[in-house]
Design goal:
Blueprint lengths: L4 H22 L4 E2 L9 E6 L8 H15 L3 E7 H7 L4 H9 L4 E7 L2 E4 L13 E11 L8 E10 L2 H16 L2 H7 L3 E2 L9 E2 L1 H20 L3 E2 L5 E3 H7 L1 H5 L4 E5 L2 E5 L4 H8 L11 E10 L15 E11 L4 H18 L3 E7 L9 H17 L5 E3 L9 E7 L5 E10 L1 H5 L4 E2 L5 E2 L2 E10 H11 L13 E5 L5 H13 L4 E3 L6 H10 L4 E5 L1 H6 L1 E6 L4 E6 H12 L1
Helix pairs in contact: 1-2, 6-14, 11-12
């Protein structure tokens, strides 16, 4: 059975052609544009004469299955651009694509009477595309540019087996059910408002989760020898020009004029750390210098790509900047890799790793890039971790390691990164005094573990389906009394738990115990302590877990021991 990534990509690419053929047969005046395979499936962008409606999807999917039964061979040929222009004389989108393809010929894929402009890579015939499902219709722009023609995108997925498709559809249904924006509202964690589009508003319970994430990471950083800093969120344009961000990132930055001088709200935290390093001379004995900052950054994103906490205009990066010698690079990268691995394992994430190499718009020489890239690869080898190469995906100032985590819904997210940077120290003329008393240039390592707190928070919510672990939950324990007679006993327990910094509260309502339990379960409180006359008489509680499990006759000492285990 074919199941590797390349075969799946071919299947989904073929499914995009299948979709285009079905649409062409049902809506013959529709203009076709492009239809690639994606990580999760495929899509095709169309310009119909009349906009598609959701109810059209059923008919399109039925026609796709009809074409599957025809078992049409998928062939590929090269055609001269002259002939291709004649073929697409009424389709400006395809004509534009033809002009952009190097050489005198283009690829044409055929299945029966249907043909499409294509580089190739398909299954043998349409009969192999049996397990396909369309998901929806959305808006798009030609070549993803809002200034271009508005289009309609139909998306879907395809698998080689019915079982794989069924499993994917279940994960997709779960992803919709446990979407982080939905959970954020239900659990009163955060919200978004028209008065600040793309800027999250954290409610008290959401801020507790953020604080716990920070405190956990702060402890790891302190143990690893980091010093925490805090730098301004607005700095002069001159600084951003010196760092290179102005030239490479200006369109994503916000600007402000003060006293006739232009300032930028930071999209990155790096220059602030650099200015702190430059504040005084440094000896080789001080290196490596590890600076950590939970830095709020702002980046302009088009409204159409905003997506809750996953794609926001303001977010906090758990940034780290290490200033070190060349000889220290591998050890520092290795230490960061181990920390990232420990953190992700704490949350139950599996990890995939890629090394992103020099992009086209990079700063600096090929030799320095190769040296930096080799240092990252060597550290990963020493950590005995497998990795792949992502050619050309590095930052403009250096190569990076990308850490991708897989959540409980089977999706992959890029969170942690480690970047080796020879160029910012050059831009800012950074130096240290060597053991021989001469000046030398330090190397700068940029690293983030969560990536952004916002994105990581959203991933966690969906990963745990709203059921955050005990140590992260905004309310860890809810005390539920059966009658008012048990209130004083419940208050005594709450006071004792609060003294130990347990997040605990009493349900003060006069609802029956079943109603109190239901409310606590909806709020995803991990533990409920049910207290009736029997528990009060015996100085115990009934511990009810979020999943409905119960432990009777739990003493206070036993409860405190369980809490200590959950916090460990």
């Amino acid at each position: 059975m074919k199941d590797n990534a390349l075969d799946l990509q071919k299947l989904r690419h073929s499914a995009a052609h299948l979709l285009a053929q079905a649409v062409s047969e049902l809506f013959p005046n529709t203009l076709l544009t492009i239809g690639p395979a994606t990580e999760m499936g495929f899509f095709y962008d169309f310009l119909p004469t009349v906009n598609f409606k959701d109810e059209d999807l059923k008919a399109i999917e039925e026609r796709m299955q009809e074409i599957v039964k025809r078992k049409l061979p998928l062939t590929h040929e090269q055609m001269s651009k002259v002939e291709a222009r004649k073929l697409y004389k009424n389709n400006p989108f395809k004509l534009e694509l033809i002009e952009g393809i190097p050489g005198d010929s283009v690829g044409i894929a055929r299945q029966g009477d249907f043909y499409d402009l294509c580089k190739g890579g398909h299954v043998d015939n349409t009969g192999e595309i049996r397990h396909v499902k369309l998901h929806g219709i959305s808006g798009a722009y030609w070549r993803a540019d809002k200034n271009n023609q508005a289009l309609q995108r139909i998306s879907g997925t395809a698998f080689f087996t019915k079982e794989d498709l069924k499993q994917f559809e279940q994960r997709r249904a779960d992803a919709i059910k446990y979407e982080h924006r939905k959970l954020g509202k239900e659990l009163d964690l955060f919200s978004f408002h028209d008065e600040g589009p793309g800027f999250p508003f954290y409610h008290p319970h959401g801020q507790i989760v953020l604080n716990e994430l920070k405190n956990y990471l702060r402890g790891k950083l302190t143990a690893a020898g980091y010093d925490e800093i805090n730098t301004p969120i607005m700095l002069s344009d001159d600084l951003w020009k010196q760092s290179g961000h102005y030239a490479h990132y200006k369109k994503n930055m916000y600007f402000c004029v003060i006293d006739e001088k232009s300032y930028a709200i930071r999209p990155m935290n790096c220059p602030g750390a650099i200015l702190i390093y430059k504040e005084r001379p440094h000896s080789y004995r001080e290196l490596p210098m590890r600076l950590a900052e939970f830095g709020l950054v702002h980046r302009y994103e088009l409204s159409g790509v905003l997506h809750g906490l996953f794609r926001a205009r303001a977010f906090t990066v758990d940034d780290g900047h290490i200033f070190c010698t060349k000889d220290q690079i591998e050890d520092e990268v290795l230490g960061t890799i181990k920390m990232i691995k420990d953190v992700f394992e704490r949350f139950g994430f599996a990890m995939k790793i890629a090394v992103a190499t020099k992009p086209e718009n990079a700063m600096g020489s090929d030799e320095l890039w190769q040296e930096a890239t080799d240092a990252l690869k060597n550290a990963l080898k020493r950590a005995q971790l497998d990795f792949v190469i992502n050619e050309g995906d590095g930052a403009f100032y250096g190569p990076k390691i990308e850490f991708h985590i897989e959540d409980s819904l089977g999706r992959s997210w890029q969170c942690g990164t480690v970047q080796v940077d020879f160029f910012q120290p050059e831009n800012f003329d950074l130096s240290y005094i060597t053991s021989e008393g001469t000046k030398a240039r330090p190397v700068m390592i940029h690293r983030a573990i969560y990536g952004s707190f916002e994105r990581f928070f959203g991933v966690l919510l969906e990963h745990f389906k709203g059921k955050l672990p005990f140590w992260l939950s905004p309310v860890q324990i809810k005390l539920l009394t059966i009658t008012d007679d048990q209130r004083p006993y419940a208050q005594k327990i709450m006071d004792q738990l609060k003294a130990l910094e347990v997040r605990v509260s009493i349900d003060e309502s006069s609802d029956p115990i079943s109603g109190k339990i239901k409310r606590a379960q909806i709020a995803q409180v991990p533990w409920m302590l049910v207290i009736g006359q029997k528990e009060m008489d015996q100085n115990t509680v009934t511990l009810r877990h979020r999943d409905g499990r119960q432990e009777f006759g739990v003493t206070m000492d036993q409860l405190l021991e369980k809490i200590a285990q959950e916090r460990a």
